[in-house]
From TrEMBL:
This is Cholesterol oxidase. Its EC number is 1.1.3.6, 5.3.3.1. It comes from the Bacteria. One of its GO terms (molecular function) is steroid Delta-isomerase activity. Belongs to the GMC oxidoreductase family. Gene3D superfamilies: Cholesterol Oxidase, domain 2 (3.30.410.10), FAD/NAD(P)-binding domain (3.50.50.60). The keyword Membrane does not apply. GO terms for biological process: cholesterol metabolic process.
Amino acid sequence: MSERSFSAEASRGLTRRRFVTGTGSVLGGLALLGPTAPTAYAAGTGEATAARTDSLLAPIESGARIPVLVVGTGYGGAVAALRLAQAGVDVHMAEMGMAWDTPGSDGKIFANTTRPDQRSFWLRTRTKQPLCQFLGYPIDKDIPRYTGALDAEDFAGITVYQGRGVGGGSLVNGGMAVTPRREIFPALLPTVDPGAMYDVYYPRANQALGVGSVDRAWWEGADCYQYARVGRKHAERSGFPFVFVPGVYDWDYMKQEAAGAVPRSALDGEVIYGNNHGKKSLPKTYLAQAAATGRVTVSPLHEVTTVTPAAGGGYTVTLNRLDTTGATVETKTVTAGRVFFAGGSVGTGKLLTRLRDTGALPALNDQVGKGWGDNGNVMCGRANHLWDPTGALQSSMPTAGIDNWDAGGAFAEVAPLPTGIETFASFYLAITRTPRRAEFRWNPAAGRVDLTWDRAWKQTSIDAAKTIFDKINAKEGTVYRSDLFGAYKIWGDHLTYHPLGGAVLDRATDNYGRLHGYTGLYVIDGALIPGSTGVNPFVTITALAERNIEKIIATDL
Ligand code: FAE
């Protein structure tokens, strides 16, 4: 059977009931997460994700034949699933993380930033917080090993933070929804028409993500943004443009948090381990819309391990069903007409590199695994004078940054330090221009994929960030904090929140994400972007996915 007729047959002849567990499927999905009852949270954006996406949860049965399998439920995967479903295609999504729809014993789905527990980290027995020290004291602590929401994935030269669960990075990120300035776009994705991106796909992505802007009048007087106003004052006194950026938090909900009218989330410091309320994460946007089509199902706690051509057409996909300790409790094999790789830059980059180099997909080209970058991420803090307090109450949702991209190659997000106490610190995540690109390499002796990143490469990013902060420190008579990332360590140069690349557009794939070497295999996530977006990346990942899936639906299906 040809690949095309396989898909057509699969779409026509297989109902969802035949390839997912039947009536028990939704309960089955919940049961995977533990014994606690499904939640019913407050209305509006405060409501739990379950309210809108529980109908998606339907673990796939071994032996199923499906038209489309999407690997991962982050931005790229959610766009692919929604648009394919709207085009009449049944889609199944495999997600290695949990569904995050069930509260723990404290009544909350996600753990608080200041009180990490097993829900916080992906399969770690000790937290690995981005800021590992405070005032000279280590702040990491032991936790039970669990399939938590934030993965701090260690490679030789860098720790890559990623979201794990239905919704991918949208569960744990800061919600800064930034469209890069049009002038810098051609350098980011040289083979993509900026006209179409800025006229069609960025607006489409922003609309579907629910991107909006904070009420500036409210912001000017809000206690929780004092830290940002101090950031603005210091930026502007040194002559740097201070730019407000949109976000995906429900700003009206935040106002109600400040007024004490609803449960606090951003104002309770929730962010990197998930937001219990307020953030318009993918389960409330793209995935909720996907659920409404009735054509999309999700297997949480299912990790795709192998994809290889099937004898009768399509692809044989192997999935490990995990328990919450990360152990494989079942291995399933299904057949998919098409596979969309959306495991994120690291997930997709590692998986494709391994599949090529271990013989499962040997025709993938030599560009697979290459072009990986850290979006030039580097963090730092500054110690303010006692007359410049940044506030004990800090909203965990950043709203603005310092733009020195053209002159110094840096855009610095004025970030919160939501400790609950006055720290007199200003904290920044800088996104910098960096020429450094690493690659994923299969390591047969160790049986794993390595990343060739070198910690010393961050010096370019530090230099770029210093174009902003050396000047501000000189002007303000202040110094860098040296107690946040280790003893006497100024720069958070050991990590990234923004992995990009690993299966770059128009190199590992064609100009729309079709993998070279195989019909019916696609990349549709941050792996397509060659290492940098110049700003926070998820809007660009979403917009590019919108562009590519539109073309794929029009021409391949
Ligand atoms: P992603 O969202 O990572 O989704 C991939 C999904 O695939 C994950 O759920 C994985 O668990 C799953 N997966 C991977 N491998 C497999 C497999 N083999 N089988 C099954 N499932 C698999 O990918 N970006 C912004 O624009 N603004 C921000 O404010 C911002 N803040 C951030 C803060 C933090 C702490 C972090 C970690 C990231 C932040 N980001 C931010 C980055 C942003 O979340 C990230 O670029 C996107 O989530 C990447 O989207 P993808 O679709 O590529």
